[in-house]
Amino acid sequence: MLAKRIIPCLDIKDGRTVKGVNFVDLRDAGDPVELAEIYSKEGADELVFLDISATEQKRKTLADLVFRVAEKVNIPFTVGGGISSVEDVDVLLQNGADKVSINSSAVKNPQLINDLVAKFGSQCIVVAIDAKQIDGEWIVHLVGGKVPTDRKLFEWAKEVEDRGAGEILFTSMDNDGTKDGFANEALAKLSTELNIPIIASGGAGNKQHFTDTFVNGKADAALAASVFHFKEIGIQELKEELKENGIPVRI
């Protein structure tokens, strides 16, 4: 079995790392370059850097910040926010990103997934999906969770896979920032129906939640923010507990 991955997420707004609850009420969580370096040294398997205001403000991801983060880390580094073209991805990869994450732009122009895969390869393209339950149905949302769409989570995820994306980063907006655990039922369905890796996001509050999402949610990786930023959980101690629980991880 492939090792499960632990991925700290740096949500960036105006050059600072921030964290909210249910995608709102953001508070400062520190300097992204410093945090990235700490996580790299502490044993994180990957990093995700999301410029959460890039799409909303109609501007490009901060390529210079990507460069400064990439200089400090020696683990795979995924960047997202405001990416809408092959040229955007080219710039980010040249500045040190290993993978890119697209979200709103993929829903608005699904062909973009195909184009990016053709140019850069599946292993480089992550599609992020933000969804919340409305009347019992998981509905995809855009622009940092502000705009509901007519897309349903599982149908969209299957299309994303069919178009060649290498991974899906699924964030449950209902669970985000609540620290009540990941949306394991939805994650398990995604993992069962698809053949590409699924990254769980939204809801981590304690070490048991990570074990639960790997066992019950069948996730391939677990992403979290505030529990790492505010030192509620140490990455090394988390991995040691996961190993004790029979979860394959890189120590």
From TrEMBL:
What InterPro entries does the annotation carry? Aldolase_TIM, His_biosynth, HisF, IGPS_HisA/HisF, RibuloseP-bd_barrel
For this protein, what is the EC number? 4.3.2.10
Q: Which GO terms describe its cellular component?
A: cytoplasm
Pfam families, per the entry: His_biosynth
Q: Name one GO molecular function term.
A: imidazoleglycerol-phosphate synthase activity
UniProt keywords (A-Z) are: Amino-acid biosynthesis, Cytoplasm, Histidine biosynthesis, Lyase
Subunit arrangement? Answer: Heterodimer of HisH and HisF.
Q: Which HAMAP family match?
A: HisF
Family to which this protein belongs? Belongs to the HisA/HisF family.
State the protein's name: imidazole glycerol-phosphate synthase
Provide the species name. Answer: marine sediment metagenome
